[in-house]
Write a structure and sequence with these properties.
With 466 residues, this protein is an alpha/beta fold. The chain has 3 domains: 18-130, Fumarate Reductase Iron-sulfur Protein, Chain B, domain 2; 145-239 and 396-463, FAD/NAD(P)-binding domain (3-Layer(bba) Sandwich); 243-393, FAD/NAD(P)-binding domain (3-Layer(bba) Sandwich), CATH 3.50.50.60. It has helices at residues 18-21, 34-41, 62-70, 74-81, 88-94, 116-130, 153-164, 181-184, 193-205, 222-228, 257-265, 292-303, 324-333, 400-404, 435-438, 443-463, and strands at residues 145-149, 168-172, 209-211, 231-234, 240-241, 254-256, 284-288, 308-312, 336-338, 341-349, 352-366, 372-376, 382-385, 388-391, 395-396, 430-432. The strands form 4 sheets. It has a 5-stranded parallel beta sheet, sandwiched between helices. A 5-stranded parallel beta sheet has the order 6-14-7-8-9. Strands 10, 11, 12 and 13 form a 4-stranded antiparallel beta sheet that branches. Strand 1 (145-149), helix 7 and strand 2 (168-172) form a beta-alpha-beta unit.
Length: 466
């Protein structure tokens, strides 16, 4: 047998040059050409032990879909992926493959892993461009009804799976557009809203109904939904921003990342004057945090006209929790990084923020997260001039549902407690998944939990056993 020649590096993907993209909100990456996709898929080693599959929270049959791409059967690959993943155009763009399927890829032990995310994105976009969406054959209706609260990645996934089981599904969305964090949290240059709408429309094409501007916990309580539906799934995410609790935090010009990004993304402030949503367009913007949301905010600030966009993060670059690609894109675009830096106070004049006071840090011993803990250097205080501050240090679930549903057990930070094997909550008939049970996490983790919930909901409605 002739040994396969291994191509060590991923096939590169064309992008807008940094100096161009920083002046617009168009998607940064152009995606693969068919020739590039085939070449990349052929890098797969076809391992006997397919360790990449369990590395995927939604269990896409990665080797099989890569084989179809390599054979130029892009539509077949898209159809195969959708057997387990209803949102491939989204996960192909925002899933942290480097820590999951690509991270455990056999090729990654010595070379760069196959670009699974890029290929997933490619086949999903190819299917859309070809206009060849194929719907799965649905079973006869069971006449069982499920209410899904929230239309983010968890809600869309559980709704799609339940529809494919033959159940009657209605999604209740509090905002005026579906998509949850996919719509309000992730910027256009990373996840175009047309892509989100396309994936939402696919889920609706399975027979799922969508009700917008409906706030569960206010418009109706969970108990009221249980009076009409056989089961309820809670997938409302984590929309309650965290703040630092330091002096001056109430000054004008200090925003949570939730508000800052929602104004730009969902309310389309970036398309002014077509949309007249007001948003702070500071010339010197500081973002506190080191995750993907912080990168999104800092890169958005540049596109809104900031001269200086600065990330302030308390650990070193090695500990930044954001995806590698997002950090690299931010650096390419000119985002400045003040690392090993902890904010201690905001200072202002005439009611508005003008400076951020910080302390310098050094790294101590690892903490519970296995990252080295930042230790302040006494007397190292310094100030940074600023006119817009964005705080992107995390978020918790909104307490609206838990407060209006007393039987629902919640844990630290307001997260809803569930049985991890079934996503059952403490209240009969109610399941949950996504950021409402974890706090701010990843899109693909939410989708994986939603798939577990869908199977458990189906079993519960068939057997009646809790």
């Amino acid at each position: 047998m002739v040994a396969k020649t291994i191509i060590p590096n991923k096939t590169s993907m064309a992008e807008q040059p940094p100096e161009v993209r920083v002046c617009n909100f168009y998607e940064v990456s152009y995606g693969y050409t068919p020739e590039q996709a085939i070449a990349e898929a052929k890098r797969c080693l076809n391992c006997p032990k397919q360790i990449c599959v369990p590395g995927c929270p939604v269990n896409v049959d990665i080797p099989a879909f890569l084989k179809l791409v390599a054979l130029d059967d892009f539509l077949g690959a898209a159809k195969l992926i959708k057997q387990t993943n209803a949102l491939p155009a989204i996960t192909g763009r925002v899933c942290p493959q480097e820590n999951q399927c690509e991270g455990v890829f056999a090729l990654a032990k010595r070379y760069e892993p196959v670009a699974i995310g890029r290929l997933e994105r490619f086949v999903a976009d190819w299917e859309a461009a070809a206009g060849s969406f194929s719907l799965p054959t649905l079973p006869p209706p069971t006449h069982k009804k499920v209410a899904v609260v929230g239309s983010g990645p968890a809600g869309l996934t559980v709704a799609a799976d339940l529809a494919r089981f033959g159940h009657n599904v209605t999604i209740f969305e509090a905002l005026h557009e579906a998509g949850g964090v996919l719509s309000y949290g992730i910027p256009e240059f990373r996840l175009p809203k047309a892509i989100v709408k396309r994936e939402v429309d696919y889920v609706r094409s399975l027979g799922v109904r969508l009700r917008i501007d409906f706030v569960v916990g206010s418009s109706a309580a969970v108990d009221e939904l249980l009076g009409e539906y056989d089961a309820v799934f809670l997938g409302t995410g984590a929309g309650l921003p965290w703040f630092l609790g330091i002096p001056g935090e109430n000054l004008g010009g200090v925003y949570s990342s939730n508000e800052y990004l929602t104004r730009s993304n969902l309310m389309k402030a970036y398309r002014y004057p077509e949309y007249d949503t007001p948003i702070a367009r500071g010339k010197r913007v500081i973002v506190i945090g080191g995750g993907n949301t912080a990168m999104d905010a800092a890169r958005t600030a540049l596109r809104l006209g900031a001269r200086d966009s600065i990330i302030v993060y308390r650990r070193s670059r090695k500990e930044l929790p954001a995806h590698n690609e997002e950090i690299e894109h931010a650096e390419q675009e000119g985002v400045q990084f003040h690392l090993l830096t902890t904010p201690v106070a905001f200072h202002g004049a005439n009611g508005r923020v003008t400076e951020l006071e910080c302390l310098r840090n050094k790294l101590g011993e690892p903490d519970a997260s296995s990252r080295r803990k930042p230790v302040a250097v006494e007397g190292s205080n310094f100030r940074i001039p600023v006119d817009v501050m964005v705080i992107a240090i995390g978020q918790s679930p909104s307490p609206l549902i838990s407060k209006s549903t007393p039987e629902l057990a919640v844990g630290k930070g307001g997260v809803v407690q569930v049985n991890q094997n079934s996503m059952k909550t403490s209240k009969k008939g109610v399941f949950a998944g996504g950021d409402i049970i974890t706090g701010g996490a990843t899109v693909i983790l939410a989708m994986g939990q939603a798939k577990i919930a869908a199977r458990a909901i189906d079993e519960y409605m068939q057997t009646g056993q809790w």
